[in-house]
Amino acid sequence: APDIPVIDQAYSKLSNSITVEWRAVPGATNYMLTAQDGDSFVETLVKNSPGTVTGLKPATLYRITVRSINSGGKSQPSPFRKVKTVLAAPILSVRSPSCDSIAVSWKAVHMAAGFSVSLMRSDGLGRMLKQNTTNTSLIFTNLDPGTLYTIKAYAWNANGMPGDDFTYNQRTSPNAPVDVKVAFSSGALRAIISWMPTEGALTYSVTVSSGLLKLRCNTSSASCMVPSLQCSSEYYVSVTAYNDAGSSEPTDAVSLKTIPCAPVNISIEEDEPGHLLVSWSGVSLGHYYVVFVKSDDGLEVHCNTSYTQCHFQSDCGFTYFISVFAYNKAGQSPLGDVFNYTTAPCCPSEFRAVFMSSDTLRVTWAPVRGADLYETRVAGGSSVVLCRDTATACTLSALQCSTRYNITVYALSEARGSNTSCEPQNVATAPCSPKIKNISKEGLSVISVQWQPNKEEATYVVTARGEAGLWHCTSTRNSCTLMDLPCGSAFSVSAIARSPAGQSLPSYSIPLETAPCCPNDLILTQVAQSVTNISWSVGRGAQTYVTTLESPKGQAKCHTLQTHCLLGCITCGTNYTVSLRAISETGLTSSCTYQGYSSSACCPSGVKLYRLSNNGIRVFWGASDETINYTADLHGSKGNFSCTPSWGLSHCDITKIPCGDVYTVVVAPVTDNGLTFCPKKIYSVTCSGSSVGMVIYRGKSNAKHI
């Protein structure tokens, strides 16, 4: 076995170990170190000096021995040395209660008389702070916020011997961030909060609170986005910095007012035609409002107000799209509901009313913007007429004559109904047809027509229509006179009424027949002493004729369909009045008078012939009227002879008349046309021996001798 080692020195630098130094023993390959505490001991095998025995208890007195070892065995233990292990290091509990302080605490260390604690920035900057204390805690203040410090502590015993030291790295908590800024994004209802980075801060926590609502955002950068904010809300924003030491104080709260919410309870109404009133409920945090009104033709107007209503001018027949926004410093509220409001259609223009007939009126108008349907309302008389159509025209029938109607055309829309401010148009219908009450003759060619007039003022036109033409008369009263109607004509008489409103239908026609025309020409021809032939031209309209020759001595009359007639029983030498009555088929009569007619003078009576001495014959007669001149005509085979007496005589002489001949003798009144209706008498003039003969009257059955 090797020699016994000799310990040079033994000491304890750590609370769980003792280091031993000795002189080397020749031939020894290993050494066995033994630390004995009472019955317990700890052995450690080492190669050479120095050697350390570990696993010891702090502040404990140990007996230290060394034995050398080789292949031959172990030596005896060296003389022992007594060595006490140093104090254990205090186990530190470190925290940073504030951004500029670090609090250190520990548990009591066995056999410790005091403690020494030092603190220094880990980056080596600044000076080291050191404190000795017999307490088990202390605080370092006035430190740099957010800075990493190295803390070393150890305990010493009553002899001042320091024990193990304990090193701990501790960072101070960060300072509160500064220059906090809030950027609000109104469109996304989110806020971006930014600040200046704080020394030593590892993370940051942003708190956005409003009442009981708290929103948080954690980040390691110097900004943070907080989404899903509520409109019309006021938030308070604070930022806290964090590191492994703890948190900073929150920053002073920064007020964040979000954009207002979209206005609600929006109402739109036309307080009067042409004016829209838009109103809404006030919005929290809304400083002012802007109302946008866009019409369907693309024109847009807006209104800024701090009140909760706006007035706009509007046109009829337009659709307006209305949106209301609230504003504050944060921006514009979100888009709320977009309302559309359609104004009632305009009242139709270019109104035109044309009568198609007396009781039918066609009304037209120009198309109206926004109209889906048109309603024509006609009020007048005792009825109301309605007409609904999509067309811009309406035909109103069965209207009452002589009536004023108020015609109102409304344009209707499904969205708004009709415009109630449309003015009615006043239209009067044509007068009612007159009713002819009476037609009377005022004269030969004058007809008076009477009718029942209308209540309204009107001009009446009476028309007589026939083959002979048209005749008119006009009056504003209830009668008028048709003049110069031709005779012998048939007419249809009707009346119409005219007014500025139009012309009535004609009245029912009344037949009218004028009296027959008197014949223009009437000729009387005496065909016998007591018979006269009367002929005349045709009287228009006459069917029969009654001719009358009348004198104090009597009358002769003839009723015939012809245009001529023979009248007998005519008294000779008599003046007659000539009259003719033309009678129509319906019995109308025209009394016609003509120039008087005188029948031929009466034939003389008692015609006798007397033989004169000079071969002459005297014709003698009894005159019927002393004022009448007569002529005597003798007609024989040997010649014709005549004589005319002096005024007032009733005989005349014919000289040198041949005898031996038969003469026809006629004594008749002298007439202009030479016609005579006196009887002819035949006389025979005989010759005697001395050429004196006899005159013999030869009648129908006998002869007379003179």
Task: Give the secondary structure arrangement, pairings included.
Blueprint: E1 7-14, E2 17-22, E3 30-37, E4 40-46, E5 51-54, E6 61-70, E7 73-74, E8 81-84, E9 92-98, E10 101-106, E11 114-121, E12 129-133, E13 137-140, E14 148-156, E15 162-171, E16 178-185, E17 190-196, E18 203-210, E19 213-219, E20 223-226, E21 234-243, E22 246-247, E23 254-257, E24 267-272, E25 275-279, E26 288-295, E27 300-305, E28 309-313, E29 319-328, E30 331-332, E31 339-342, E32 352-357, E33 360-364, E34 373-380, E35 383-389, E36 393-396, E37 404-413, E38 417-418, E39 425-428, E40 435-443, E41 446-452, E42 459-466, E43 469-475, E44 479-482, E45 490-499, E46 502-503, E47 510-513, E48 522-528, E49 531-536, E50 544-551, E51 554-560, E52 564-567, E53 575-583, E54 589-593, E55 597-598, E56 605-611, E57 617-622, E58 630-636, E59 639-643, E60 651-654, E61 661-669, E62 681-685, E63 695-698
The CATH top-level class label of the largest domain: Mainly Beta
Low-confidence runs (pLDDT<50, min 5 residues)? 689-694, 700-706
* Helix/sheet category: mainly beta
Number of strands: 63
InterPro entries: FN3_dom, FN3_sf, Ig-like_fold
Protein name: FNDC7 protein
Pfam family, one: fn3
